[in-house]
């Protein structure tokens, strides 16, 4: 009987809906150039459906409230380059970065060189650059309505 409960629990985990994730933009060279021209920070994620590490990063890192919140607060554009069918444009971009496989993650911060992240991605690796960037952004004044909505300090 306990084996059936374990099997049922495992089955429910595999059938469960995926957790919320970033609202990814579809990759195109123009999308990255647009972000650069607007001085908008971006994260370019090269991934593929057949890549188990990519899927794990999607479920663990890019679905975490810390990452979603950091991207929202700093206006980071998440861009996903789908390498499932080995797109030649994506291959060329990977080659320019000195990479040939997925996952590959690149941070584009205004007025800085693109920064490659390690394949062993963690939540801290993704949120820390944006935390530093956010500390350099001018503080926005909140409206009285937003202050009330957040409650007392």
Can you characterise this structure?
A hairpin with a 6-residue loop joins strand 4 (104-108) and strand 5. The protein is globular. It is built from seven helices and five strands. It has a five-stranded mixed beta sheet with strand order 1-3-2-4-5, sandwiched between helices. Mean pLDDT is 81; it is low at 140-153. The protein has helices spanning 2-15, 29-37, 52-60, 65-74, 88-96, 123-136, 144-150; strands spanning 25-26, 42-47, 77-82, 104-108, 115-117. With 153 residues, the protein is an alpha/beta fold.
Beta-strand content bin: 5-15%
Instruction: Report the helical percentage.
Output: 40-55%
Strand order of the largest sheet: 1-3-2-4-5
Radius of gyration: 19 Å
Structural class: alpha/beta
**Number of helical runs?**
7
The rough form would be described as globular
Oligomer: single chain
Q: Biggest β-sheet, characterized?
A: 5 strands, mixed
Alpha carbon gap, first and last residue: 52 Å
Task: Report the count of strand segments.
Answer: 5
């Amino acid at each position: 009987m306990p084996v059936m409960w374990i099997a049922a629990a495992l089955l429910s985990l595999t059938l469960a809906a995926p957790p919320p994730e970033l609202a990814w933009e579809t990759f195109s060279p123009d999308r990255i150039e647009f972000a650069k021209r607007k001085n908008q920070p971006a994260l370019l994620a090269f991934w593929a459906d057949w890549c188990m590490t990519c899927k794990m990063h999607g479920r663990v890192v890019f679905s975490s409230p810390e990452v979603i919140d950091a991207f929202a607060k700093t206006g980071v554009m998440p861009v996903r380059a789908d390498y499932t069918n080995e797109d030649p444009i994506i291959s060329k971009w990977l080659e320019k970065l000195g990479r040939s496989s997925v996952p590959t993650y690149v941070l584009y911060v205004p007025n800085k060189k693109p920064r490659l992240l390690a394949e062993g991605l963690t939540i801290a690796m993704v949120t820390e650059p944006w935390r530093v960037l956010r500390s350099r952004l001018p503080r926005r004044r909140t409206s009285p309505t937003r202050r009330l909505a957040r409650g007392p300090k």
